[in-house]
Amino acid sequence: MQKQVYLLFCALCLAATVHAQNITAELDTLLRAYYRRGEFNGSVLIARQGKILLEKGYGYSNLTARTLNDGHTRFQIASATKPFTSTLILKLVSLHKLSLDDKLSKFYPDYPKGDSITVENLLSHTSGIYDYTRDGDFMNNEAGKPNTEEMMMALFKDKPLDFSPGTQWSYSNSGYSMLGYIVPRAAGLSYDKAIRKYIFTPLKMDSSGFDFVHLDSTRKAIGYYADSTGAYNQRAPIVDSSVAFAAGAIYSTVEDLYKWHTGLQQYAIVNKTLQDKAYKPFKNNYGYGWIIDSIYGRRMVSHSGAIWGFRSNFARITEDDVCVILLCNIETPAMTNMTRRILAVLYHQPYTIPQLRVPVQVSAAVLAKYAGFYEIKEIPLRIEMKLENGTLVAYPNNGPRSELMAADATHFFLKDDQDYEIGFDLDESGVPKSMQLRNSIGPRTAVRVP
C-alpha cells in the first residue's frame, strides 16, 4: 500500500513538472513571437505561487557592445516607480510621520490652494495639479539636465488647478513629485534614502537605484527609439532622475522587481489594511499608485511605465500570487497586449500568437477621405487623421503620433502595434462617418466631427 501511495505521489510530481515545462515553453513561444515582430526587446519574469515559470532576456541590451538582455539587466522602469512612492507614503503613515488627510499646506504653507489638496489626492491623481510633462518645451530641451526642487515646482506650482481637488481624476506626474518632496519634510530622509531604507534594503533589491545617467555597469541597458523605417536603433537620451524623481526615476531588474512583488505579497513593508487600501479604486480605476482592473474574474493591480527609450509593465494577480514583469529597452506600445496574452496562457484562456502582418497598398485618393477629426466623448479622446507622404497618420490629443498600415481599403493596423486595429465606417455615399478602434482594452467607436 505504501509503495502504491509513493508511486502515485511520484506520478503527480512528474505531471506537475511536465505541466510547468509546457507552460514555460508556451510563454517563451509567445514572447519570441513579439520579439520577432520587433515589438519586444528586453527581459521578462513570470511567476505563479512562488515559482518562476519564465525568466529570460530577448534581444540586445546594448546594440553597439552586442550584450544580451537577461534577468540581471538594469532598465529604467519609469512610472512603475509610482507603486514604490505610494508604498513609501503608506509606510510613513504607519509610522505616524504623516496622514493621508494631511494638507499639502502642512508641508508647503505657501503652495497655492495647498489647504484643499491632501496627501490622498496626490496619491490618487485627484489633486488637479498640472502635469509638468505637458510642457513640451521643457521636456524636449531641459528634461535631460539636472533640475532642483525649486526649478521643477516652478513648472506647475502657479498653474491653475485642472479641477477642484477630489472632484475629478487626471494623471499627474507633478503630484507624485510633490509626494517625493514631502518625504524629507515628514521623515527627515531624502526620497531616495527613504526608499532604500524602507524598501530596497529590507527586500535585498541590490540592483535597483535612481541615477540612471551615472550608473556605470555592464548590466545597464541602453534605450532605443525608432528610425524612419520603424527599426529601434536610435540611442535615446536619458531623462534626469531629478526630473522623473518620485514619479518615474527608479531603475531595476526583473529579479529585483520579483523581490518587490514577494515583499508586497507578504506585507513586508506595510500591513494588510494599508496595502489593501492602496488596491481599492479611488477614481478612474486608480488606487494609491496602482491601476486596478479585473481579468478572468480576478483583481489585477498593475502599473506601466514609459520614458525615453524604455517601456515597462508590472502586473499582479494578488489572490493567486501571479506576477508578470516586462522590462523593455525599446519604445514599444505592445506591453499591455503582451501582458494580457501572458495571463491568458497562465489561466488557460484562448489567445492568438501574434504574426507579422504585411500591409497592402491603398491609393492616396482613398486614404485622403479618412482625413479629419474623430471623437470618443466618454473618454474623452479626440483624434486627428492626416495624410502624410502617402501614409495615414493618427494624432490623438493625449498620445503619440501613430502611422497606420492598410489591411484593406477600410481596415488598418498601427505600424508599431500591429494588434491595434482601426476600421472606418462609411455612409451610403462612401464618406467616413466613424471609425472602430480595437485593442486589448476592447472596442471603441470614434465619431467623425467637424
Write the layout of secondary structure elements.
Layout: H1 2-36, E1 42-48, E2 51-58, E3 60-62, E4 67-68, E5 75-76, H2 82-94, H3 104-107, H4 119-123, H5 136-141, H6 149-153, H7 173-187, H8 191-200, E6 224-226, E7 232-235, H9 241-248, E8 251-252, H10 254-265, H11 272-278, E9 291-295, E10 298-307, E11 310-317, E12 322-328, H12 335-346, H13 364-368, E13 372-376, E14 381-388, E15 391-396, E16 402-406, E17 411-414, E18 417-426, E19 432-439, E20 442-449
Antiparallel strand pairs: 1-2, 1-12, 3-4, 5-8, 6-7, 9-10, 10-11, 11-12, 13-14, 13-20, 14-15, 15-16, 16-17, 17-18, 18-19, 19-20
Helix pairs in contact: 1-12, 2-7, 2-8, 7-9
Notes on the protein architecture:
It is globular and about 65 Å long. It is of the alpha+beta class. Helices cover 30% and strands 26% of the residues. About 3% of the residues have low confidence. The longest helix has 35 residues. It has two domains: 272 residues, 3-Layer(aba) Sandwich (Beta-lactamase), CATH 3.40.710; 86 residues, Lipocalin, CATH 2.40.128.50.
Mean pLDDT: 94
Strand order across the largest sheet: 13-14-15-16-17-18-19-20
| Poorly predicted parts | 5-18
**Number of strand elements:** 20
Q: Given this structure, which CATH class of the largest domain is correct?
A: Alpha Beta
Strand content: 25-35%
Q: How many domains is the backbone divided into?
A: 2
- First-residue to last-residue Cα separation: 80 Å
- How much helical structure, as a percent, in the residues? 25-40%
Shape category: globular
CATH superfamily membership of the largest domain? DD-peptidase/beta-lactamase superfamily
The CATH topology assignment of the largest domain is Beta-lactamase
Total DSSP helices = 13
What Rg is obtained from the alpha carbons, in whole angstroms?
23 Å
Give the second-level CATH assignment, the architecture of the largest domain.
Answer: 3-Layer(aba) Sandwich
**Major pleated sheet:** 8 strands, antiparallel, barrel
Which structural class fits the helix and strand makeup? alpha+beta
InterPro entries: AmpC-like (IPR050491), Beta-lactam-related (IPR001466), Beta-lactam/transpept-like (IPR012338)
Keywords: Hydrolase, Membrane, Signal
GO molecular function: hydrolase activity
Protein name: Serine hydrolase
